[in-house]
TrEMBL record:
Entry keyword annotation includes Manganese: no
Keyword Secreted belongs to the record: no
Gene3D superfamilies per UniProt: 3.40.50.880
One Pfam family linked to the record: DJ-1_PfpI
Species this chain originates from: Metabacillus arenae
Protein name in UniProt: Type 1 glutamine amidotransferase
Coiled coil (residue ranges): none
Keyword terms, alphabetized: Glutamine amidotransferase
Segments forming domain DJ-1/PfpI: 6-167
Family per similarity comment: Belongs to the peptidase C56 family.
Amino acid sequence: MRLKDKKVIALVSEDFEDLELWYPVLRLREEGATVHLVGEKANVTYKGKYGVPAESDLSFQDVQADGYDAILVPGGWAPDKLRRYPEVLEMVRQMDQAKKPIGQICHAGWVLISAGILQGRKVTSTPGIKDDMTNAGAAWYDEAVIVDEHIISSRRPPDLPPYVRAFADVLAGEK
């Protein structure tokens, strides 16, 4: 279990993309990581775009980024909500400053844009926010997964296997 001592924040809000939250969470747990679902409030059930529920373990206020090894931002419409919380943006900035893995898929790039951490980075996302990503100073590529140091980005659900593999590799210190 190469991730047995790793702790990961998985952000959650209404209308997350079901697979983009649960596939990484389950795969990382399978490799031994502790993954906490973190939402605006603790112990609240959020519904994904397709109705799959996710109950938050902790609230944004309960979490200190320095107590975690990585953060995951799912896609769907949740990123448009998540980027409105100063606590979320601060968590992402702290992870970036500490060079801890930040995973973002699909529309999750909006959170990284609002956190102001994409200048000069290589990324991918859903093509629908390509302009947003490049306007934030990132170099955008139409590839399944891009690893730029500690930022791991992906386009959409069909890219989940290489995305989560790359994220786990970076978290394990293997990339």
